[in-house]
Amino acid sequence: MTRILAASAAVLAIASTGAAADTKLTYGSWLPPTHVVVEKGLQPFFDRVAADSNGSLTWELFSGGSMGGPKESLQIVKDGLVDSSLLVDVYYKSELPVAVTMSDLFMLVDDQIAWGAALTETQLLDCPQCEAEFKKHDLKPLAFYSGGDYHLMCTEEVHTLDQVKDKKVRASTRNGALSEHWGAVPVSITTAEMYEAMQRGQADCTIGAYAWLNSYGLKDLVTSIVETPIGGIFSALVMYTTEDRWADLSDEERTILLKEMPQLVADINFSYYEEGLEAAQQAKADGIEFYAMGDDMKASFDEFLKGEIGYSEEKAREAGVDDPSAIVDALMKNVEKWKGIMAEIGMDRQKYAEKLWSEIYSKL
Predict the structure, then answer these.
(1) Alpha carbon 59 to chain centroid distance?
(2) Rounded CA gap, 55 and 51, in Å?
């Protein structure tokens, strides 16, 4: 990340000295080693950190859930079993209600790259309640990522309200609420059970990422896809540690880690996008039909989205969050900011990483 380093001579001077003593950090991932987050994001990040420190600061990866699954990721870090892990806040609604206030807005996501950066900026710079919430758990958040946009994928042609009516749609949380709003029947089935359910007719459609066409084999069953985005996950915490472990690191080590965070975020966000794009292009080549959301369906979708901010704020108040409107306002302001940045730089991964540095990480 030469251009990011060039943006801060002081950081370059510190980082070039290397860490004072050998330090090994550990990461517990419940994702397999071939998953895009690990293969395209974390492993290159670990390699860069080792190179930047001349081998004195290294990471050991435990993948595939060997240290625990998504519901254990918070505790294994707090207990010191590993130094970092992947944390999805929806599994910790009672522990992290402030974070969930933002992640509950996932149905509004219409540009995963911009929303991912906006969430990172809000969490790390513009949300005192977020900082207090993580400190309460002795946690130091460092990097968040966004996954692929979600789409309606069905075993027969569906892109209008008449066509979706009474269809059984595999969906959860707000996707399920949207399905009901459309007159469909939401079906609560895990992604692991999704293929068999669609194969047997227990579900006619699913709402999910293009990448699922390959990773879950849905390309064998799906014949129709609505290419209009239907939200997407944008708030996964991919790098964090305890406040104590962060304090134990030297200034040089912390600097090395921080200056590599923008590329980590950029690599995961763009790799998700590229993985989905590649899967969609292959699906089109294989004869799967892609449709814009029908006018009536789009109007109904837009009507549904009008209530999402109110829903998020109401759930946050019920969870004891003070002034959730301030949190949501900060996020939405940053979303508009990053949409403007994306309009300026286009889909350029390196420029995106540089902006993450100049707008966020250089200010930490």
Answers:
(1) 22
(2) 6
DSSP one-letter string for 278-304: HHHHHHHHTT-EEEPPPHHHHHHHHHH
Rounded-to-integer distance, Cα 131 and Cα 140, Å: 8
The CA distance from 246 to 251, in Å, is: 10
**Per-residue model confidence (pLDDT) at position 14:** 39
Torsions phi, psi for 142 (to 5 deg): -130, -30
Residue 72 DSSP SS3 = coil
141 forms bridges with which residues in the sheet? 240
Q: What is the amino acid identity at position 60?
A: E
Give the whole-angstrom CA distance, residue 251 versus residue 230: 42
Residue 103 CA to residue 236 CA, distance in Å, equals 9
Kindly list the distances between the CA atom of residue 73 and the CA atoms of 88, 200, 316, in Å, as whole numbers in the listed order. 9, 34, 23
| Among candidate residues 202, 181, 173, the one with its CA nearest the CA of residue 304 | 181
Q: Sketch out the chain's domains with CATH numbers.
A: 2-149+231-280+307-363 (3.40.190.170), 150-228 (3.40.190.10)
Query: Region 183-206: what's the mean pLDDT?
Result: 94
pLDDT, residue 189, reads: 86
Structure tokens, 328: 């949501």
Kindly report, residue by residue over 118-177, the tens digit of the pLDDT.
Answer: 999 999 999 999 999 999 999 999 999 998 899 999 999 999 999 999 999 999 889 999
Give the C-alpha separation, 235 to 54, whole Å: 32
Per-position b or e across 228-237, b if 16+ CB within 10 A of its CB = bbbbbbbbbb
In tens, the pLDDT along 208-262 reads 999 899 888 999 999 999 999 999 989 999 999 999 999 999 999 999 999 999 9
Global confidence as pTM: 0.88
Cα diameter, the chain: 66
